[in-house]
Amino acid sequence: MDVEIQATLETRTSKKGSKYEVIVIKLSDNAEKLVFLNSAELELLKLYNGI
């Protein structure tokens, strides 16, 4: 079964003021799932998408 989901790579700021990148999967208007990747996974994603 194939399922399409809406996900974006976002740069966010922590409560302490540090910047971080996270994949945000939109589940509904009221819910989202944050997926944290390690640095190698982030670089592969950026290379694949030409970022």
Characteristics:
51 residues, alpha+beta, three-stranded antiparallel β-sheet, 1 helix
Question: What report would you give on this structure?
Answer:
By secondary structure, the chain is α+β, with helices and mostly antiparallel strands. The chain has 1 helix and 3 strands. The chain has a 3-stranded antiparallel beta sheet, with no helix packed on it. A hairpin with a 5-residue loop joins strand 2 (19-26) and strand 3. The longest helix has 11 residues, at 39-49. The protein is flat.
* Proportion in helices: 10-25%
Summed up, the helix count is 1
Apparent shape? flat
Order of helices and strands: EEEH
Average pLDDT, rounded to a whole number, is: 92
Strand content: 35-45%
The side-by-side strand order for the widest beta sheet comes to 1-2-3
- Regarding quaternary structure, what we see is single chain
Distance between the termini: 30 Å
Structural class of the secondary structure composition?
Answer: alpha+beta
Biggest pleated-sheet summary? 3 strands, antiparallel
Q: How large is the radius of gyration?
A: 13 Å
Which residues sit in consecutive blocks of at least 5 with pLDDT less than 50?
Answer: none
What is the β-strand count?
3
